[in-house]
Amino acid sequence: MKRINLGYGLNHIVDLDMLSDDSVIVDAGANVGEFVKKIRHCCNAMVYAIEPSARNCKIIRDRKFDNIEIIEQALGSSARKDVTFTEYSGELKGDGCHRYHQWSNTIGKHKDRFVNDPTVKIMEYKVPTVSLKALISKYGWTSIDYLKMDVEGAEYEIFDDLEYSDAKIIRQISVEVHDDEKNQALLGKLQILGFNTQVIPGNKIYAWRK
After folding, report:
1. Disulfide engineering: 28 pairs with which of 11, 75, 92, 125, CB 3.0-4.6 Å?
2. What pTM does this model have?
3. What angle do CA 127, 166, 141 make, to 5 degrees?
């Protein structure tokens, strides 16, 4: 077992002993690719980056990572065909990204905070959704060696939709959580699906199979 924390701005736990260059990694909520950049220091595994923001997907493409497939959709439940994506753009920072872009999401969070702020542009547009079940079927995955999830509150719906037949191929998960009232139920669901769980300071849950 070789667990590390991917560090500031991510705070996701990963067991490197479960990864190799032949692994499948699913990055749900890829944003501008900082997770991909970090994981590339550990292995050159294939990363499937799921990201609903067209702007963020362009930034990831421009970074020209090796062994990556960008899925320009929102991860969601199998019952949804699309979602309304709310995208925030504040001032342009030195790294070429707009402030608050990392808070863009599919459930309308933060909108009230910025609606009267003239420095923040808010855009809303429809984005198609895709479920884990559909992705497993499409790509023929027999193992997901690492699932990183940072989907700004949509994680509860995604895990509610997840069945054991699909979850059994996932070896480890790191998920950012956003609702204290729902976290206990999420931990229970992960345990029902056969995972060991650990709450990580900084609003993360790490889950793994022995």
Report:
1. 75
2. 0.94
3. 80
